[in-house]
Amino acid sequence: MNDRSQPRRPATFRLDDPGVVVTEADETGRISRGTIQITPEPDPSTLPVPIETALPARRGLPWGALFWSGVAGLTLLGVGLGVVHLIGDLFARSESLGIIGLALAFVTALALAVVIGREAFGLARLVTIEKLHQRATAVLASDDRNESRAIVQELLKIAHQNPQLARARAALESHAGEIIDGADMIRLAERELMSPLDAEARRLVSSAAQRVSIVTAVSPRALIDVLFVFVASLRLIRQLARLYGGRPGALGVIRLIRHVIAHLAITGGMAASDSLVQQMLGHGIAAKLSQRLGEGVLNGLLTARLGLAAIDVTRPLPFAALPQPKLSDLATDLLRKKEHEE
Fold first, then answer.
1. Beta strands in 34-158 (DSSP E)
2. Phi/psi of residue 221, nearest 5 degrees
């Protein structure tokens, strides 16, 4: 066995020893025998950083937007032209009929403008609450004091429209000057403003789940079950949005439904609901309930999970200082009520 095949024993040396040679990792030259070669590891700060290349912007005309804009414009022109011809025909027949038709057209246009204004205001309020949620989450990570004070001021403006939060607003305003850290300011605002709202939100979700479970348990048709669950879910989402300061109209509710479904898809809420139902119904509870009552409990639990997702979407602050409501607590209340009825 030659010297090269023998393992090298541990040894100590000085860096200024002439027998120590420092080489780069990419050097391939041979060194003389008896010389110690040292290859330093690369510094992470000097390593190349991958830069994400931005996707090229789409060029060309937005044909889809142009199509729907054209359809909407033609529809409005057609309706307007038809109303003008109708009013002209009414005036041709009788002046009184023409005045009545003109007054009805004015009332319709005014009502349409008010409805559009309400929808725009509701969408703007929902966007404001969503941005507050995102900003509060960022402040909890960055501890920015100035940003936290701005968020609290916006929350107080929203809370001024709720008379139930008068004492909470006063307590928050009295203690706001004593808080230094931005994250603590957000937690204080959550404890003072969100605590009574969270309790009311849990009551709304529990009531909706119990109502759905009772109706679907006694309903003779599956179509009635589906319609009632859909209507109850829409009502629950609207109630939770109004509770936390939102004023959603028809378009706002549609937007909230999309966000709630996306939240359930991201967090895996439906899978969690299914596992909880299987776990609770598998521990002897299924034997105590009839088939219809079991279906009612299942529909109630799914409605409760939808309500919890709506709370996460409509709440202006993330859960940091207060415990987040869990499906297991609502399921326990629902099953206790079912066993009492049985």
1. 36-38
2. -120, 140
Query: Concatenated DSSP letters for 119-153?
Result: HHHHHHHHHHHHHHHHHHHHHHHH--HHHHHHHHH
Helices (H), ranges, 244-326: 250-267, 269-280, 286-288, 291-314
Length of the chain: 342
Residue 14 CA to residue 10 CA, distance in Å, equals 14
On the CB side of 145, CA atoms within 13 Å amount to 6
H-run or E-run covering 22:
strand 20-22
Tokens of 36: 């110690």
Say how far apart CA 197 and CA 195 lie, in whole Å.
5
CB neighbours of residue 120 within 10 Å: 13
pTM (two decimals): 0.67
Q: For each of the chain's 342 residues, which pLDDT tens digit applies?
A: 454 555 556 666 665 666 666 666 555 555 556 566 666 665 554 555 444 444 455 566 678 888 888 898 899 899 889 989 999 999 899 889 989 999 999 999 999 899 989 999 988 888 889 999 999 999 888 888 888 888 888 888 888 878 888 888 888 888 777 777 888 888 888 888 888 898 899 999 988 888 888 888 777 777 888 888 888 989 999 999 999 988 888 888 888 888 888 877 776 554 455 455 554 555 444 444 556 666 777 788 888 888 888 998 899 988 888 888 887 777 666 666 555 555
d(CA 169, CA 164): 10
Q: Rounded CA gap, 341 and 339, in Å? A: 5
Burial label for 213, CB within 10 Å (0-12, 13-18, 19+), is buried
The pair of structure tokens assigned to 53 is 């290349």
Q: Indicate the SS3 state at residue 242.
A: helix
- The structure tokens 């002046």 sit at 95
